[in-house]
């Protein structure tokens, strides 16, 4: 704040950060900030309603109704002008607002995140925004039906975030939601108004789907069936004057949220672990099948080595495929980066360029346009691997990473169980361990793939940081020319190594993932085999009653899990 106020006079004009800061100060202090020193502005009297800020604590608002909560929340989320009334708004100080709705089955174990559109250019939320988008399994893009195709903002959001949601995220579905679908201008016949609305909504869906089909960059990250369009009307859903509830499509979204509830899978995973442990405990007290244990152990070891070989081959095949494509990407990057940088600099004004270099190459303009010079420089690299990356690390739950080699990993315990009933409990334990370890690995891969994909852009950013810092130091006459010269010269000098380093960084992360997967599989399954077939300990308590109870729960959950897969 002190730095800003000191330089306020000379930073006016085209500096977008200046306008950003003025808006924030005006929201919190009104016009009073212009007449106060920075020390005076930190007086606690300005924060009497939000004292928690000084201890970095959460502020909790508890309300009995949505209307009451909305009234209390407004000053923490936006500015509302009222003539003649001086009100302080604290949205510039708020990173996140979480609303908890008690006893709502529809949202049980489901988190709805309302993210800003392209018009929100508050840079302090940028990192959180990027992280949250990458963690969303479904993204809803909401716009009014009468401008769903024509308005550029929703499509710009989709274009600018497709890689965050896709290859560097875990989004499985994009829902394009057209609101106010009950509105229709001057219907000729009131009796036919429903038919007019329904037909207009069908046409709107077709037009939206057609436009989506033209977005080749987005489709590199998502299959066509990942995209769905809904035409909704909350007014008609509540009042039911002209449309049936089904026509509003809100029931479809409600059903989707219910199906999205992942509590069931978490419960199944927990019960699977408990079932396996109880089988191990009960089996340790059994003397049956002792003569078969050595042979079964030998076969399990053989199966494990074979499966590890399959996993290693699948990951190495992916490594080779990525290396081939990245070599092409490096060549394209080296031949086009200077031209691309020149094109960017020629159409970028001083104020915008100043913001870009001050923020390490990333800036959002007041009009909502996202500028990321690092992404631009890395685009030939990411373009070269996008389709292969989606095949290797699909976001869809039913498709496994590395051509499904992790999902299909098995020590053939099902067959061994049928052939060795006397070792049934021990082999059930191993089967449960297989399921547990695959669940664990799939979670690791889901998070690590984001790091692997983002490493290309992050490496470029790291190599550009010194250049940004030097360019940001210029001010006064000819500073635009100096900034441009610094950026161009750095790219020219660095291009031979910078893109090679980005390629090497990504391939190293992929190789590290391979080593981690193999280590976890080998150590866990060998340890589990030791526990199940080489443990005979009568001091372990026998648990037949508990085993039967958990076994029943396990099979019930497995049955309902298959039903959910069929109905989803």
From TrEMBL:
It comes from the Eukaryota. GO terms for molecular function: GTPase activity. PANTHER family: NUCLEAR GTPASE SLIP-GC. This is Nuclear GTPase SLIP-GC-like. It comes from Acanthochromis polyacanthus (spiny chromis).
């Amino acid at each position: 704040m002190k730095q800003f106020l000191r330089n306020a006079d000379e930073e006016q004009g085209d500096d977008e950060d200046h306008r950003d800061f003025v808006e924030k100060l005006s929201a919190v202090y009104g016009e009073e900030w212009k007449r106060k020193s920075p020390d005076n502005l930190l007086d606690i009297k300005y924060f009497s309603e939000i004292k928690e800020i000084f201890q970095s604590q959460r502020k909790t608002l508890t309300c009995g109704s949505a209307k009451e909560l909305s009234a209390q929340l407004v000053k923490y989320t936006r500015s509302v002008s009222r003539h003649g009334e001086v009100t302080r708004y604290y949205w510039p100080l708020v990173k996140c607002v979480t609303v908890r709705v008690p006893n709502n089955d529809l949202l049980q174990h489901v988190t709805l995140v309302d993210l800003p559109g392209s018009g929100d250019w508050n840079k302090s939320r940028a990192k959180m925004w990027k992280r949250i988008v990458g963690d969303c399994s479904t993204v809803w893009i909401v716009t009014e039906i009468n401008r769903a195709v024509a308005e550029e903002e929703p499509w710009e959001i989709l274009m600018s975030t497709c890689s965050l949601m896709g290859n560097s995220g875990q989004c499985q579905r994009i829902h394009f939601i057209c609101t106010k679908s009950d509105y229709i201008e001057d219907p000729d016949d009131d009796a036919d108004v429903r038919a007019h609305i329904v037909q207009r909504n069908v046409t709107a869906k077709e037009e939206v789907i057609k436009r989506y089909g033209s977005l080749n960059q987005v489709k590199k990250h998502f299959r066509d069936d990942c995209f769905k369009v809904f035409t909704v009307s909350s007014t008609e859903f509540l009042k039911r004057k002209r449309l049936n509830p089904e026509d509003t499509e809100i029931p479809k979204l409600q059903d989707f949220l219910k199906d999205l509830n992942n509590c069931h899978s978490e419960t199944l995973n927990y019960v699977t672990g408990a079932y396996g442990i109880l089988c191990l405990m009960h089996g340790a007290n059994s003397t049956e099948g002792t003569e078969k244990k050595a042979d079964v152990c030998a076969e399990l070891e053989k199966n494990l080595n074979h499966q590890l070989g399959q996993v290693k081959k699948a990951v190495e095949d992916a490594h080779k495929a990525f290396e081939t494509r990245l070599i092409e990407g490096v060549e394209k990057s080296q031949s086009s980066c200077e031209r691309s940088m020149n094109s960017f600099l020629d159409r970028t004004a001083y104020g915008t360029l100043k913001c870009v270099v001050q923020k390490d190459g990333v800036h959002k303009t007041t009009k909502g346009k996202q500028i990321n010079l690092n992404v631009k420089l890395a685009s030939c690299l990411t373009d070269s691997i996008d389709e292969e990356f989606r095949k290797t690390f699909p976001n869809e739950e039913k498709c496994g990473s590395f051509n499904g080699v992790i999902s299909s990993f098995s020590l053939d315990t099902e067959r061994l169980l049928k052939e060795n009933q006397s070792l049934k409990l021990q082999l059930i334990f191993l089967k449960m361990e297989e399921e547990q370890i695959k669940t664990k690995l799939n979670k690791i891969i889901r998070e690590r793939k984001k790091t692997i994909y983002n490493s290309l852009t992050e490496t470029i950013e790291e190599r550009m940081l010194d250049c940004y810092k030097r360019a940001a130091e210029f001010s006064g006459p000819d500073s635009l020319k100096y900034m441009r010269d610094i950026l161009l010269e750095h790219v020219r000098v660095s291009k031979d190594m910078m893109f090679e380093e980005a390629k090497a960084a990504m391939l190293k992360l992929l190789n590290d993932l391979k080593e981690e997967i193999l280590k976890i599989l080998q150590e866990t399954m060998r340890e589990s085999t030791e526990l199940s077939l080489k443990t005979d300990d009568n001091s372990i308590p026998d648990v037949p009653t508990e085993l039967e109870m958990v076994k029943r729960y396990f099979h019930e959950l497995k049955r309902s899990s298959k039903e959910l897969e069929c109905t989803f």
